[in-house]
Amino acid sequence: MFRDDFLWGGATAANQFEGAWNIGGKGPNISDHLTRGSKETPRIITPILREDGDYPNHDGIDFYHRYKEDIKLFAEMGFKTFRLSIAWSRIFPNGDEDKPNEEGLQFYDNVFDELKKYNIEPIVTISHYETPFHIAKEHKGWTSRKFIDYFVKYCEVIFKRYKNKVKYWLTFNEINMTMAGIGSYLSLAIVPDEDTVLVEQETELKDRLQALHHQFIASAKVTKIAHEINPNFQIGCMNIFAPLYPLTCKPEDVILAQYYNNINNYYCSDVQVRGEYPSYAKKYWEDNDIEIKMEDGDLEILKEGKVDFYTLSYYMSSCISSDPTAEKASGNFLFGVKNPYLEASEWGWQIDPTGLKYLLIEIYNRYEVPIMVVENGLGAIDKLEDDKTIHDDYRIDYLKKHIQAMSEAVDEGVDLRAYTPWGCIDLISASTGEMAKRYGFIYVNKQDDGSGDLERYRKDSFYWYKKVIASNGKDL
User: Fold this and answer.
1) Cβ atoms of 169 and 161 closer than 8 Å
2) Does the keyword Hydrolase apply (predicted)?
3) What is the pLDDT of residues 134-163, one digit of tens each?
4) d(CA 444, CA 226)
C-alpha cells in the first residue's frame, strides 16, 4: 500500500510546454534550436536558427499564457504534486548576466502561487534541457568549468526567491543519459559547429565525462547551498533508468548486463547519492584512457553535497547480448537488443511494468534513500472524437500495470514517495519534436502542422487517474 501522504501528480518540462520562447525577457535555450522530427525523421540541431525552420518548442502548448487553466485541470484530477522545470534562460536570458530577469522570476512566482491555491506541491527541475544557448555556444557547454559558476548563481537566485514556495528540487534531468553515448546536446549543452542530427551527434567520451564531472560538482555545491538557504529544502538527483537484462543465462551476457547497468544506470547516481566515484568508474576511465581534470577540493565537495533523495524516469527496458547478430531494440534513445518477451509501443519502446518493480527494489537496496518516480508514461496517437472525447484505454492499461508494479515494490519495503507520470498534459516530444506522440491525461488541440486552437479536452485517462488518486492507488 502507498503511504497516506503519497504524492500523486504529473510531470512536464518548460521547454516542451511553456511556449513564449522570446516573451517576457526570455532568451533562446538549446531546445529552441531543435527542429521538428517524427518517427521517421530525426530532429536537427541548428546552431543558427533557420528563417524557414519549424521549431515546435517555440510555442509549446502555451502554458505561459494558460497556466491557470491547466493547473485548475490538474487540481480537478486531484493532483497532490506537479513536477515542472524552471527555464534557465527565462531567469538569465544569456546565462552570464549580472542580474536576473525579473519578469521571468515573477512568472514562476505566479505559477507557484496558483499551485498553492489548490494545495499542489511543486517539484522543480532546475535544469531540464533549457540551458541558455548563448553560454552553451560560447563555452562548449558543460565541458567548461565556467558553467559551474553560472549554474550556482542561477540556483542561488531561485533558491532565495522561492525558498517559501518550493520544497523539492531536482538538479539535472536524466543526468546519466549521456553515458549511453547520447545527450551531449540536451544534457551537456555541447553545441555542434553545423546542423547535426540530434541522435547522431558525436562527442568524445573524455569530453562527456569531463562535462559530467562539472555537473556533479555543480549539483553538490548547490545542494549544500540549498540546505544553508532553507534547511527544509530537499534536493534530489534524477536519472533515466532503463534496466538491461542479459538476453540469455550465458555467463558472458550476465557480465555484460552487470557492466552496462553500472555504467549507464548507476555511474551518475553513485556519485550524487554516495558522494564519491565508485571503483568501477575508475576502471572505466583506465580502460578508455580517460583522465578527469579535478581541482583541489573536488572530492570533498562531492562528499559534502550528497542529495537527499533519488528520482527517476522509467519508460522501458532492454536486453544486452554478447552475440553481435542479436536484433537491436528500435526505440528512440534505446540502448541494447530486443527482448522477445515484451511488446513495444508505436515508437518501438519496449513495455515492461515488471521492470519498474525490479529497478525500484534494486535502487532502494543500493541507496536506502526515498525514491520518486517522476516520469513514466505511454506515447501514443490519440483520436479526438466528434463529441470531443478521447478514448485511451491503452494508456490506462499501461499506467495501471506500472502503478501495480510500484505497489508491489512498496510492499517489498521500498520507500516510494511520489509518482508523476510524464506529460500529464499533451506537449512537444523531446525525442521527436512531435505533438502526435501524446502522453497526457489532457488532450491539447494542436497538430504537427501547427493547426489547432490549443483547446484542452479531458481524456478517458483523466477520469481514471482522478479515481486512482482519490483512492490512493487502491482503485485501478
Assistant:
1) no
2) yes
3) 999 999 999 999 999 999 999 999 999 999
4) 36
Question: Which residues, other chains included, contact 178 with Cβ-Cβ below 8 Å and sequence gap of 6+?
Answer: 184, 187, 188, 208, 211, 212
232: which residues sit within 8 A by CB, 6+ positions away?
167
Q: Are the beta carbons of 253 and 183 closer than 8 angstroms?
A: no
For residue 387, give the DSSP letter.
T
b/e code 118-148 from CB counts within 10 Å (16+ = b)? eebbbbbbbbbbbbbbbbbbebbbbbbbebb
Per domain, the residue ranges of the chain are: 7-470
pLDDT at 333 over 60: no
| Mean pLDDT within 2-29 | 98
Which one of 3.40.50.970, 3.60.21.10, 3.20.20.80, 1.20.1440.230 gives the CATH number of domain 7-470? 3.20.20.80
Q: Which three cell numbers stand for residue 241?
A: 533508468
Phi, psi of 390, deg, nearest 5: -135, 115
Would you tell me the crossing angle of helices 353-367 and 393-411 to the nearest 10 degrees?
Answer: 30
Q: Which three cell numbers stand for residue 410?
A: 512498496
Q: What is the pLDDT of residue 330?
A: 64
Catalytic center residues: 174, 375
Distance separating alpha carbons of residues 257 and 97, to the nearest angstrom: 45
For residues 254 and 262, give the distance between their C-alpha atoms in angstroms, rounded to a whole number.
12
Question: What nine digits make up the cell of 132?
Answer: 541558455
User: Could you write out the DSSP letters of every residue in 197-246?
Assistant: EGGG----HHHHHHHHHHHHHHHHHHHHHHHHH-TT-EEEEEEE---EEE
> What value does the mean pLDDT take over residues 126-141?
97
Rounded to an integer, what distance in angstroms lies between the CA atom of residue 371 and that of residue 368?
9
Please count the CA atoms within 13 angstroms of the CA of 342 that sit on its side-chain side.
Answer: 24
**Predicted pLDDT at 8:** 98
